[in-house]
Structures are given as structure tokens and as C-alpha cells.
Amino acid sequence: MKQFLRTHLYLFLLFVLPAVTFAAPPPGTTEAQAFVDKLNSVILFPTIALLSAVAFFVFLWGTAQYFMNANNDAAREQGVKHITWGIIGLVVMLSAFAILELATTTVGLSNELDCANDPANCANNPFVVPT
Fold this sequence. Notes:
Structural class: mainly alpha
Radius of gyration: 25 Å
Order of helices and strands: HHHH
Helix content: over 70%
Largest sheet: none
């Protein structure tokens, strides 16, 4: 009897779960998806890019301090601190981008950073919110 119930349960799940998977989304989710897409493309991804650029320039500034002040140990130490914090900032921003990208692709949201495949659409006007 146990085997019979288990077999029928597996068969039921085999045929019912795909139907649930391909069901239409509940009402209101398309608006939420559109909102999250806009939030990602207008606020989160550009903020991550800006902070990554700041971390990169901190790294470059530390490198310049390190090499230009070869005789001054205190200035070289300051350069090493800038290099270290620049690398930490780059790692944190790369991790934030990876987590955000993973989250958006996991739940099926499209990110609007497809500039590699469509560069003309990305560089038209940076002040216009994509629709």
C-alpha cells in the first residue's frame, strides 16, 4: 500500500508541478517586475559602477603616492593604505554587482545593461530612463 501511494504521489507531482510552473503570473507582479527593473537599471547598477570607479581611482591615487614618494616612508605608508582600501572597495563592488546580477537572473528579471550586445541603445542619452 505504501508503494502504491508513493508511486501515485510521484506521478501526480510529475504532471502537476509543470502546470504550476507554466501558469500565468498573479496580477500585480508585472508592475512589481517593472519597478524592480527600473530600480536596478536607474539606481543600483549605475551606483555600483560609480562606486567601482571611485574605488579604482583610490587605488590609482595610492599607487601614484607610493611611487612618487619613494624617499618618504610616511607618504609611502599612506599610499599603501590607499592601495589596500581601493582593492577592498573593488572587491566589495564586484561582489555587490555579482549578488545583484545573480538575484535578478534567479527570479527572472531582465537587467537593462545589455550594452555589449546593443551599444547604440545604451549610449544614446544617459539622462533618459529606458522604457
